[in-house]
Amino acid sequence: MAGKIIVGVTGAPVSRRAVDWAVTRAAQRRQAVELVSVVGGAVGAVGEAEVLGAAQTATQRLLDGEAARVTDAGVPVTTRVESGNPVTKLIEAAADATLLVIGSDYRGPGTGPARGVHGIRIAAGAKCPVVVVPDRDLGEGMGIVVGIDGSEVSEHAIEFAAAEADRLGEPLIAVNVWTPVHTPRNAMEVYPDLYLANMQSTAEEVLALSVAGLSSRYPDLRIVRRVERGHPSQVLAGIAADARMVVVGTHGRGALARFLLGSISQELLSHLPTITAVVR
Length: 280
Hints:
Pfam families: Usp. InterPro entries: Rossmann-like_a/b/a_fold (IPR014729), Universal_stress_UspA (IPR006015), UspA (IPR006016). Belongs to the universal stress protein A family. Keywords: ATP-binding, Nucleotide-binding. By secondary structure, the protein is α/β, with parallel strands linked by helices. The protein has two domains: 1-137, HUPs (Rossmann fold), CATH 3.40.50.620; 139-280, Rossmann fold, CATH 3.40.50. 39% of the residues lie in helices and 21% in strands. The protein contains nine helices and ten strands. The chain has helices at 14-29, 48-69, 86-93, 118-125, 152-168, 193-210, 214-217, 232-240, 263-270, and strands at 4-8, 32-39, 77-83, 99-104, 130-134, 144-147, 172-178, 223-229, 245-249, 275-279. Helix 1 links the parallel strand 1 and strand 2 (32-39). Helix 3 (86-93) runs parallel beside helix 4.
């Protein structure tokens, strides 16, 4: 399969995890990898050119070292150093890519969210799928989890997740989460059984329709269907904690709000349960 994977590289330790993940995937799918690092912070101050030049030289050495480290994988690896806003430059670099891979310094529950909002803004603005790799050993997770809601974007997420599951020989865990209508406290302490049963049944139908065509395209793929009641991001995070990857879709919101994600995607990226892919 042709195509190029862009990897955002920084001096943070998690960048190595992101590079390794991308190179492994590229080797399996016969793709090329480009390592991109962005030198930011320039404001045009007097004497800044010398500082900027030194930063660019050091950054190129960093990329060259990473490229040399993974040379045995047999994957074509190129490097690029950019200057400017890291979010904008990475989004531009990945405009024609099949995938953008970045790392996050989030290390799990109790450590707080990852620093800043760059990862969330990159995932929201990129045209291609974005994979975010957390900075921790994920162990031997099982399955590719995908969140399903019956939308067109959800279909794109399902296709991406199914291809990953088939590539890895993992089960596809398709999850549809339904949430009862919110009511003020004490307005309805007990929901009618008929209402709950119909909500469950509707969610099961949506899930069944969403995965109906996968078996013909991926005959060896094992599909696990789960329909749960609760808050979507919390349920997905709980299931994905033991998985190799979780995939969610995000809706495009136009130029004026291009750096906004849906709440589910944003909540998952803020507290990464595992490697997380955001698909538009």
